[in-house]
Design goal:
59% helix; 125 residues; mainly alpha; single chain
């Protein structure tokens, strides 16, 4: 079919290939978006502070939600301390689970889990 002549579709494909190469080179040279590079999987300035702040907020938020639900149910059903106690412990459990997930790097993205570091693997990519 093609006897040395480029067909109709080959020139646009070469142009597309050149544009893709150029875009990849630009992307490799650029700095990653700071909004996307938060969390324990990414290094950077104040990374320990970011993780500590996230852990504290996760724990407090889970406790506040648990206590709020417990108080609301107690007021609605007139069972004063029981739902508060139950949902306090449920909130504490949820907070601890969230802290574990943050520390382990689980839940950073859909289907993403940090790969364990292998000392034998070379660090050049």
């Amino acid at each position: 079919m093609s006897e040395g002549k480029p067909s109709e579709g080959e020139e646009p494909l070469k142009d597309l290939d050149a544009r893709l190469r150029h875009a990849r080179e630009d992307w490799r040279g650029s700095e990653p978006d700071k909004a996307l590079s938060s969390g324990p999987a990414f290094g950077g300035e104040n990374n320990g502070f970011k993780v500590a702040l996230r852990v504290g907020v996760e724990m407090v938020a889970a406790l506040v939600v648990g206590v709020g639900i417990g108080l609301a149910l107690d007021r609605w059903l007139d069972t004063t301390p029981w739902f508060l106690v139950v949902f306090f412990f449920l909130g504490a459990g949820a907070g601890i689970l969230n802290v574990y997930r943050a520390a382990a790097g689980i839940g950073l993205g859909s289907g993403y889990r940090r790969r364990p570091v292998d000392e034998n693997e070379s660090k050049t990519d």
